[in-house]
Design brief:
- Keywords: Amino-acid biosynthesis, Aromatic amino acid biosynthesis, NADP, Oxidoreductase.
- One of its GO terms (molecular function) is shikimate 3-dehydrogenase (NADP+) activity.
- The protein has helices at 22-33, 49-55, 83-88, 108-119, 136-147, 160-173, 234-241, 250-265, 271-286, and strands spanning 8-14, 37-43, 61-66, 80-81, 93-96, 102-105, 128-132, 152-156, 178-180, 194-197, 222-225, 245-247.
- By secondary structure, the chain is of the alpha/beta class.
- It has 2 domains: 6-104 and 249-283, Rossmann fold, CATH 3.40.50; 108-246, NAD(P)-binding Rossmann-like Domain (Rossmann fold, 3-Layer(aba) Sandwich), CATH 3.40.50.720.
- Strands 2-1-3-5-6-4 form a 6-stranded mixed sheet. Strands 9-8-7-10-11-12 form a 6-stranded parallel sheet, with helices on both faces.
- It starts with 7 loop residues before the first strand and ends with a helix.
Length: 287
């Protein structure tokens, strides 16, 4: 990578970021597509997020990526929101326009839906969902499910106000299909076809942990975890042990990252190059 005065920068804003493969995948894509761009990490939480986001206006940035715990908070510092992003109430992608405006988008939903339907084979309009996590990732995932006609979505979170807010937004802005469930209440789980983990529990400092006791898992259910490092969280390991089909967030990361590149550059992303790089990273992490 040759960085010069014309290099357009992208930074990922969030914490923790030590488990992220995004920079390597994105930079490989830029190299393959002949783009003079560089993607790097900035570990930051809500406290100084506004200052960092505003600073992008005055430097050679094409925009930024946003992850936990900043996907909802970042909306406060943007000039405009894409209509779907506004309905979701969460942004993972910020584009700086030539005029210096910061515009929020959400590609998490697109990446999740593409992975769930193409790799997981899930027919969303035929399924009932249970989701752990009502923050940024959970918002995108549940909102896109509602947008595509999910039958029912139960949502729980350690921070009840997050889940309650998301339920209200889905019922008002998409369809009246969402219902809040207190964390630890698994009475609705047996009726669900697909169980989602968007809580972040199972990665970073919580590796080996799961919010779902094994005894509530049914072999007929499909389990998805937005995490991809580790490749199998305890949530997925427990489901696999019970005979469930499982899918991690690698495909979600791939497809949402490709959509980000297209927003930042206006060019089609080299998806297969990105896929091979992600698979290479995963293989190396297992070695």
């Amino acid at each position: 990578m040759n960085i010069d005065i014309n290099t357009k920068m992208i930074t990922l804003l969030g914490t923790p970021l030590s488990q992220s493969f995004a920079a390597r995948m994105q930079n490989k894509a830029y190299e393959s597509a002949g783009l003079n761009m560089c993607y790097f990490y900035t570990e930051i939480d809500n406290e100084h997020l506004g200052e960092v986001v505003n600073s992008l206006r005055y430097m050679n940035f094409a925009g930024c990526a946003v992850t936990k715990p900043n996907k909802v908070k970042v909306l406060e510092y943007l000039d405009e929101l894409d209509p779907l992003c506004e309905k979701m109430g969460s942004s993972n992608t910020v584009v700086k326009t030539p005029e210096g405006k910061l515009v929020g988008y959400n590609t998490d939903g697109v990446g999740f839906y593409t992975s769930l339907t193409e790799e997981g084979g899930i027919k969303v309009n035929e399924c009932v969902f249970f989701c752990f996590g009502g923050g940024g990732a959970g918002r995108a995932m549940c909102s896109i499910l509602a947008y595509h006609g999910a039958r029912k979505i139960y949502i729980t979170d350690a921070y009840e106000e997050c889940a309650i807010s998301l339920v209200g937004d889905i019922n008002e802005k998409f369809a009246p299909i969402a219902e809040f469930v207190p964390l630890g209440d698994f009475s609705k789980l047996a009726a669900c076809d697909v169980v989602l983990n968007a809580s972040g529990v199972g990665m970073g400092s919580t590796i080996g942990q799961s919010l779902l006791p094994k005894e509530y898992i049914k072999p007929s259910q499909f389990y998805f975890d937005a995490c991809y490092n580790p490749a199998k969280t305890q949530f997925l390991l427990d489901a696999e042990e019970k005979g469930c089909r499982i899918l991690n967030g690698l495909g979600m990361s791939l497809y949402q990252g490709a959509a980000q590149i297209e927003l930042w550059t206006g060019q089609k992303a080299p998806v297969e190059v990105m896929r091979q790089e992600l698979l290479k990273i995963v293989a190396e992490s297992k070695a």
